[in-house]
Amino acid sequence: MKKMKTSDDWGLFEWALYIAILAFASWFIVTFIGMRTPVIGQSMESTISDGDQLIVTKFSYRLGEPKRYDVVIFPPPSETDKKANYIKRVIGMPGETIQIMGGYVYINGEQLTTDVYGLEPINPLSEGDLAYQPLTLGEDEYFVLGDNRNNSMDSRNPRVGVKTKADLVGKAQVRIFPFDKISKISKESEQ
């Protein structure tokens, strides 16, 4: 004789199915849609600060290309730096020639004057730094800088170097913490 399923059996199955669906949805969102990331350090002051929490959209660069002044997230350059992703701003675009001299960024020989994020002149570079000499970016290469230019490990450092679209985890969209600073991460100017 067959035993009939009781309502307790169905309730347990429904809960297990519900938990499985939530686990899959969570995995899907974190893997393909977006994630929360903490800001560690002062390299993006005064746009974002140490301790801020950001929402990053991972699909941004699956559907489109990075643009100048996007705030992007990418993994640290080495296994020893695994404490957090790096957060920087796209300054140089594919095919452009970048050079930093006299404290300023030059793109294709013209000083970048629309850069409202770097609030002070850049300290002199040394010969080992990228962009000390003119640096021409490849067809899928981006030059990224921290907004706090004199306190940032970014594309100027050969350990970080230029980034490709595949290197970019996503685009920072919104600051969600601290609560009194909830705001969109804006891109105020275009070139």
Automatic annotation (TrEMBL):
Cell compartments where the protein resides: Cell membrane; Membrane
Domain of life: Bacteria
Principal location listed in the UniProt entry: membrane
Topology in membrane: Single-pass type II membrane protein
Domain called Peptidase S26: residue spans: 13-176
Xref: Pfam families: Peptidase_S26
Family matches, as PROSITE patterns: SPASE_I_2 (PS00760), SPASE_I_3 (PS00761)
GO MF: signal peptidase activity
Ranges annotated as spanning the membrane: 15-35
Catalytic activity: Cleavage of hydrophobic, N-terminal signal or leader sequences from secreted and periplasmic proteins
E.C. designation(s): 3.4.21.89
Keywords (A to Z) from UniProt: Hydrolase, Membrane, Protease, Transmembrane, Transmembrane helix
Entry similarity comment: Belongs to the peptidase S26 family.
Protein name listed in UniProt: Signal peptidase I
Species the sequence originates in: Ohessyouella blattaphilus
Gene: lepB
